[in-house]
Amino acid sequence: MKFDVLTLFPEMFTPLKESIIGRAMKNGNIDISITNIRDFSKDKHKKVDDTPYGGGAGMVIRTDVVYDAYASVKTDGAKVIYLTPQGKTLDQKKVQELSKEKHIILLCGHYEGIDERVIDEIAPEEISIGDYVLTGGELPAMVLIDSVARYVEGVLNSDSIKEESFASGILEYPQYTRPETFKGREVPEILKSGHHENIEKWRRKKAIETTYQKRPDLLEKESFTKEEIEYIKNLKENK
Ligand code: 4FD
Questions:
Q1: Among 33, 104, 141, 157, which has the minimal tally of Cβ within 10 Å of its Cβ?
Q2: Distance 75 CA to ligand 1 centre (A)
Q3: Interval 24-58: pLDDT, tens
Q4: How many Å apart are CA 49 and CA 41, to the nearest integer?
Q5: Is the Cβ atom of 116 under 6 angstroms away from ligand 1?
């Protein structure tokens, strides 16, 4: 999968070279290319913005630099995304859908704002990573890349993807490693029993219990067995 990022702050994307995403780039599972919108300025001072029509504080990014940066990376069938607080909030379902794309173009705006006409012309899908305002779309773009890249074949080991929370719709069961006792707190006996079937049942119960305690809203969307429905009813009654 190819990601093209259009930004005025290309240096902000250096952390992506680290860790799992960096390894995925090295392995050729994903390709991330960062384009500096400023490179498309025809101005001798590399200016990209101008004063707003109608007056007011601040500056507005010009249509031409944004459009030319976009035209330089665009392919047929590319998914174009504009990171903005006005977008639909990113969730795990959307992340999984996006992981099926071949080419994603991410347009990062910032507080100055981009001339509306180039947004209308490109007609990107508008995505937000949550209801808060940031100085730029760069962090949201990185959040999107990280979340989507995890689903690309070869990036994670496929067992972890199958087991994880949200993919299943509820939260994860708790994890333990050595030592057996930490400040008087024991590792649950069942996890040392070697009885894999019982361990799986215990983990599923714990996942439901954790979800009930921390994110009860998620229980509404998930489907459960008769036994599990009974268990949830008990959790609610013993409150
Ligand atoms: N919640 C988000 C995205 C961008 C952003 C910007 C218009 C402001 C938060 C376009 C206004 C981009 C988010 C930059 N803040 N700030 O996903």
A1: 157
A2: 25
A3: 999 999 999 999 999 999 999 999 999 999 999 99
A4: 9
A5: no
The CB of 41 under 6 Å from ligand 1? The reply is no
Class of domain 163-237: mainly alpha
Rounded distance from Cα 151 to ligand 1 centre (Å): 24
8-14: long-range pairs with CB below 8 Å, 24+: 8/36, 8/37, 8/38, 8/48, 8/61, 8/108, 8/110, 8/136, 9/108, 9/110, 9/136, 9/138, 10/34, 10/35, 10/36, 12/136, 12/138, 12/139, 12/142, 13/138, 13/141, 13/142
For residue 134, the ligand 1 atom closest to its alpha carbon is 15
Hey, what CATH topology would domain 2-156 get? Alpha/beta knot (3.40.1280)
Q: Could you tell me if the CB of 134 is within 6 A of ligand 1?
A: yes
165-203 confidence digits (pLDDT tens): 676 799 999 999 999 999 999 999 999 999 999 999 999
Q: How is residue 128 written in tokens?
A: 């937000």
